[in-house]
């Protein structure tokens, strides 16, 4: 196996620049929305490990344009935090698309944090045309951190607010961020008058109610536990315009929502390339950021190219 290159999170950290990643992710979201055979991504395998409250996900994808074949293997064990290990642990296997031979294993904890935040930032830019003064983050883990950093940098919010179930962890996050944040005891108070809200928790019951959200607000829903749509209340979905990253995945992972009669309006790639537009009179917008394999492929490929260039 000596031919397999091992690329660590530390290498990723040193060469992954937020500003470079945004257009790469944006393009991948458009590519996957154009249904042709040059970009392939089935709905991922989503396996519950019930007694551990864990998840195991296998996320294959192929891109002819990027000349890349990949599969991310990712686990999500929320209890890990109590023993000092990240809840979400990921590796991306890159294969030669001609022979199928494995060429690299890219540690993808940082990639997962950043590509998810990049997708939310791109969706926010595209779906939310209103003011961007107040950003509210519900949660204080890895995704909360990458979303706070990415959205603040992209939109320069005047105020960044954080609420977390465990206040101590919200304080730790605030101390790590390179800008001032306001901490809230109550999630309701935190989201009051917010222009953009990100939910990034394992909450099994709604942590965001329709009556708390101001008209015209945009929500990025990131949390994915056993049930992908438990962070937002049913009433909030009913009054909002809902867009996802990948319809085929959403049909599976958001089946609970569609069974309730909640309509998914389209894939974000359709809006990014202007084949669809968000109507002006919508009450709120939601981007359900499920996280998709093609984002991982393009990011890992980008890192791999930097890695191999450095070795020449
Ligand atoms: N869409 C995507 O592409 C991705 C989604 N995710 C999902 O994002 C979410 C966060 O992941 P990550 O940041 O890596 O995880 P972390 O473990 O780093 O953070 C988890 C956060 O969830 C909070 N939380 C846990 N249980 C509850 C609960 N019952 N009610 C309210 N808050 C709760 C934690 O609060 P406390 O500090 O109190 O424990 C903490 O703020 C997960 O659902 C994960 O599956 C992750 C990666 C990619
Ligand atoms: O896309 C992703 O990597 C994940 N989504 C939910 C947990 C991890």
UniProtKB/TrEMBL annotation:
InterPro entries: NAD(P)-bd_dom_sf, ODC_Mu_crystall, ODC_N
Residue ranges of coiled coil: none
Domain of life: Eukaryota
GO cellular component assignments: cytoplasm
Short name of any one Pfam family annotated for the protein: OCD_Mu_crystall
Name used for this protein in its record: Ketimine reductase mu-crystallin
GO molecular function: hormone binding; pyrroline-2-carboxylate reductase activity; thiomorpholine-carboxylate dehydrogenase activity
Subunit structure of this chain's protein: Homodimer. Binds the thyroid hormone triiodothyronine (T3); T3 binding inhibits enzymatic activity.
Top-tier EC class: oxidoreductase
Similarity section: Belongs to the ornithine cyclodeaminase/mu-crystallin family.
Protein species of origin: Nezara viridula
Catalytic activity: (R)-lanthionine ketimine + NADPH + 2 H(+) = (3R,5R)-1,4-thiomorpholine-3,5-dicarboxylate + NADP(+); (S)-cystathionine ketimine + NADPH + 2 H(+) = (3R,5S)-2,3,5,6,7-pentahydro-1,4-thiazepine-3,5-dicarboxylate + NADP(+); (3R)-1,4-thiomorpholine-3-carboxylate + NAD(+) = 3,4-dehydrothiomorpholine-3-carboxylate + NADH + 2 H(+); (S)-cystathionine ketimine + NADH + 2 H(+) = (3R,5S)-2,3,5,6,7-pentahydro-1,4-thiazepine-3,5-dicarboxylate + NAD(+)
EC assignment: 1.5.1.1, 1.5.1.25
């Amino acid at each position: 196996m000596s031919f397999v290159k091992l690329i660590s999170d530390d290498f990723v950290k040193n060469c992954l620049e937020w500003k470079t990643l945004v257009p790469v992710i944006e393009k991948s979201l458009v590519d996957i929305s154009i249904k042709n055979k040059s970009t392939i991504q089935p709905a991922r395998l989503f396996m519950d490990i019930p007694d551990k409250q864990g998840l195991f996900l296998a996320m294959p994808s192929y891109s002819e344009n990027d000349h890349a074949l990949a599969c991310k293997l990712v686990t999500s064990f929320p209890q890990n935090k109590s023993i000092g290990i990240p809840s979400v642990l990921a590796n991306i296997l890159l294969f030669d698309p001609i022979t199928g031979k494995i060429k690299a294993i890219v540690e993808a904890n940082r990639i997962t944090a950043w590509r998810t935040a990049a997708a939310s930032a791109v969706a926010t830019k595209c779906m939310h045309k209103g003011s961007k003064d107040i950003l509210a983050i519900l949660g204080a883990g890895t995704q909360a951190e990458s979303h706070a950093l990415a959205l603040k940098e992209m939109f320069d919010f005047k105020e960044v607010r954080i609420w977390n179930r465990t206040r101590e962890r919200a304080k730790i996050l605030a101390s790590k961020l390179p800008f001032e944040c306001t901490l809230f005891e109550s999630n309701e108070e935190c989201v009051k008058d917010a222009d953009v809200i990100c939910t990034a928790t394992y909450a099994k019951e709604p942590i965001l109610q329709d009556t708390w959200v101001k008209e015209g607000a945009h929500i990025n829903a990131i949390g994915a536990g056993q049930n992908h749509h438990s962070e937002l209340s049913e009433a909030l979905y009913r009054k909002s315009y809902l867009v996802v990253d990948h319809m085929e995945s959403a049909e599976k992972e958001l089946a609970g929502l569609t069974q309730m009669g909640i309509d998914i309006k389209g894939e974000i790639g359709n809006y990014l390339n202007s084949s669809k537009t968000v109507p002006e009179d919508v009450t709120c917008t939601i981007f359900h950021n499920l996280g998709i394999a093609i984002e991982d492929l393009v990011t890992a490929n980008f890192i791999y190219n930097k890695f191999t260039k450095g070795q020449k």
